[in-house]
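Reopening closed ticket. The problem is back. First fold of the pair:
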Amino acid sequence: MTVYEDFACAYLTEVDAAVRRMLTCGTEAVDLLNRAAVGDGQVRAFGNGGSSAIVRSALLQLQGRAGLPTADSMMTPATLAYSAQRDYRTVFARSLAHNVEAVGLLVVASVSGRSANIVEAVGLCRAHGIPVLALVGGDGTQIDPGHGMVWATGITDQQVSEDAMLTVLTLAAATVLDPDEAPLPARQERHLHALAAMVTAGLGVFLEEATTAVADAIRTRRRIYVLCPDGGPLALAGEHFAHNLSWDAPLGVAEVQPPVVVSDLSLADMSAIYNDHPDPAHGVRYQLSSAAPGDVVFLLTYDSDGRTTREAIRAAGEAGVRLFLLHRDGTAQPDAERLKLPPADDFALAALVQSAAHLVCRTTRAALCADHAAGTSAPSPHDLMAQDLAPLRELSDTTPSL
């Protein structure tokens, strides 16, 4: 086995173990979500960075399938940016405060469990007797949700924790919405079987090719595209992937400039494009019209034979890019490195894609670091497991506080 295969196996084994640990108290989380689903209150959710995409995926599932009243975890980007200028520490709490009596459940995700804006929001709900479902890394003792529960990953690794959080939250929400289809333990085993099957599906080969392509693109200042033309939960996984490629993978690596990462359309873009061009393939075709040979495209899709995906593949082929296709259904596509993922529903599939994306970002960071470590051997799976994507995010010690 190559180092990529060994690392993928080691990483997914850790995710499996974290999910199993968390789901020993999964019934309590399902009960919390159940009470919210049958009550009249809103479900609100907050997270920073990749955790934002994780909690919004749960909200999307609850709202889309059950019509449960929910509110976006991060508000609109413009509203968030404007509000944060006042005090980012209290931005989430202020979003809750004006209508806190209407909140039936708060869901938060934070690997550290110490993010000031998360702590403030949890404290507000605790003071008003509102139940909180807090997904955190480590042993969970760093946060007090009051009425509710701490759902701890039992590990401090950033990406393993995030993958476990998305998985258990997805499975718990699915159990709430369709309890007759399968109990939580059956859903757990089905998903973890799919997670293990990713290694035998050629994940190591895909990971090696993707790492080489992304690292070269960052070194040579080529564009990297992360696109999900089908939308849905995969688009949130794609947002998380693009965030990791833009920030976490290269940040703090000597002499590496921020890469140019093009991700899915913004709300402003979508409303404008779809208003003028109802064809959903138009947006991704337009984005890929700027691509050129040497660029890298990750295309996340449910079905590679779907019309919108075929249009995206055609546009990528015309641009001569290096195309990486992650899909669940459909046939192989020419001129593309592909990872065909095991059968899973749309929301569980997003958790599998997030794990694959985290693997790519971690090995990419290792490849970039190796550029400036002459004479060192290639990192081992043990080394890669120790290099999670959690660098210090302050750009300067002298950056003024807002």
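Second fold of the pair, where the issue appears:
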Amino acid sequence: MSDKYPGGITDETRQAMDAAMRQGLQDDLRTLAAIIRADAEGRYDRAEPGWRSGVEWTLLWIENTASQLTGGRSQPW
């Protein structure tokens, strides 16, 4: 047990809680990307210039952020 975490919370428990939180956020981000992608389908042809690249950049950013959440980092945000 760690002295840094009172109340009987072990380092292993804290790490498991952190991993679960990161996994949940990762799932939420990927769900958001899927919703954006589905909403954008069919709109590219009649969209203003730059709209398509903006959507693609946003989807890439969301996926990169989601991937970093479980990239082996153990430090909290």
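Update: turned out to be a display glitch only; the data is intact. The helical segments are 11-40, 51-69. The mean pLDDT is 81. Please close again.
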